[in-house]
Amino acid sequence: MQTLPELYMLNSCPFCWKVRGMLDILNIEHKKIPVNPMKAKKTLPSAPEWTKSPVWRETDGEIIVDSTPIMQFIDQKYNDGALWNTTDEARRDHWLEWLDSKMSKATIPILYGSLFSALRTTRRVAKMEKFGFFSRQIYAWAGFPIMWGFIARKRVKKDGRKPKQLWHDLLDEFIGAFNDGQFFGGESPDMIDLVAFGYVSSIEPYPQFSQVTDHKAGMTWFKAMKEASKA
To answer: What pLDDT score does 143 carry?
Structure first.
């Protein structure tokens, strides 16, 4: 019998990090279920209709898919919607779309933007995730030319900025949207803070995160978010 809600996730998935940040902030006890993307149809309770992570399953069997709907569901069920509710819905909705269309896409260039970076990242991912031996080898050595050659290079070329400059510009724009508070949400984090925190957290396990750590204002906010998640 399932006694805890379950988060089906990948450690390397930025959308999973969004949900993980909320679970930490709200201190919700749950079970993490690792997913091998090459075996998603056999692992995910939402398959075959939905084969992406994250997936959330409640103790009563209810299944919610896609990161933002999962966050909204968890916030409403366990927190009376306090993180999502706001007096300025237009501001919230604008920045949610901005984060999902810009910051989320910036994770690929910084992790896979060069051949060497892509190789380091895929090898790191293969060690982080609970893949079997052969799946690890396939992902580590076959994944990096795909991520670099077919995805990251196109995004870097289209944007025109080096990944470090891209991230610094994004953090400038995000921090600049704060209304005189420590967080986007003011004196305490809100849903937008958590979404951004998830995307930044998803690159922290990798050496390329050093390209972000010298953004002073961004790291001040990021460290404050970490402290809030421990409270």
So the answer is: 53
